[in-house]
Automatic annotation (TrEMBL):
Molecular-function GO terms, alphabetical: transferase activity
InterPro entries for the chain: 4-PPantetheinyl_Trfase_dom, 4-PPantetheinyl_Trfase_dom_sf
Keyword Transmembrane: no
Full protein name: 4'-phosphopantetheinyl transferase family protein
Keywords of the record: Transferase
Signal peptide location: none
Domain 4'-phosphopantetheinyl transferase per the UniProt entry, residue ranges: 105-194
Pfam families: ACPS (PF01648)
């Protein structure tokens, strides 16, 4: 069972990433789903989706949780029954979770694709990134920005929040592997730390809400 990467963000916060390359029956072994999640999985037509779903349960086990420790609110945001914070993501053959005892957290994994160039204007002022050397660098940068905004959206979880108008990710270099962001929505401002990493043509971004922010 290949856990691909574990990142200790802080003494109270960890990221777990899985590369899904084993068959469904191997992933199902040793995993006990709640009736709700079993019926969700039974409704998945795609084997790839079912495998991703099961791999996330293995990631939760790495963090010391079982399926019945998880519940979702009306917005679709996942929560842990013990009060710790969790966020979940999956993209193609990678899945990831972030768990924190202390901070509100969000995580997103994205495949780096040229398609992002066409939609960039919908989520970020693209002029900011025109200085980049080549298209590949621009795709990488925009994917980090998109992943950051997805992660923040998962933390904030409020309808009407606009990636373009309400979420601002401060500029960064690839070498930084981190930046900060703010959300200004309905007159309220909140601040976040963002960290990112790239692997096998994918980008993983995770966000933590800053204390007092």
């Amino acid at each position: 069972m290949p856990i691909y990467k574990t990142i200790t963000v802080s003494p109270t916060t960890s990221v777990y990433i899985w590369k899904v390359d084993e068959p469904e029956e191997d992933l199902a072994s040793g995993i006990e789903l709640t009736p709700h999640c079993q019926s969700r999985m039974d409704g998945m037509k795609s084997e790839a989706h079912r495998r991703a779903f099961l791999s996330i349960r293995h990631l939760m086990a790495e963090a010391g949780y079982e399926d019945h420790d998880l519940f979702y609110d009306d917005f679709g945001k996942p929560h842990l029954k013990d009060g710790n914070h969790i966020s979940i993501t999956h993209s193609h053959n990678f899945t990831g979770i972030i768990v924190s005892e202390t901070d509100e957290v969000g995580i997103d994994i994205e495949m780096q694709r040229e398609k992002i160039l066409k939609i960039a204007h919908k989520f970020t002022p693209i002029e900011e990134y025109k200085t980049l050397a080549n298209t590949e660098a621009l795709i990488r940068k925009l994917t980090i920005v998109w992943g950051a905004k997805e992660s923040l959206y998962k933390i904030y979880a409020q309808q009407g929040l606009s990636f373009l108008r309400h979420i601002n990710v401060m500029d960064f270099t690839f070498e930084d592997s981190r930046t900060v962001a703010e959300i200004l929505y309905k007159g309220k401002k909140s601040h976040y730390e963002i960290e990112f990493l790239e692997f096998e043509g994918f980008t993983c971004v995770y966000a933590l809400k800053m204390m007092g922010g």
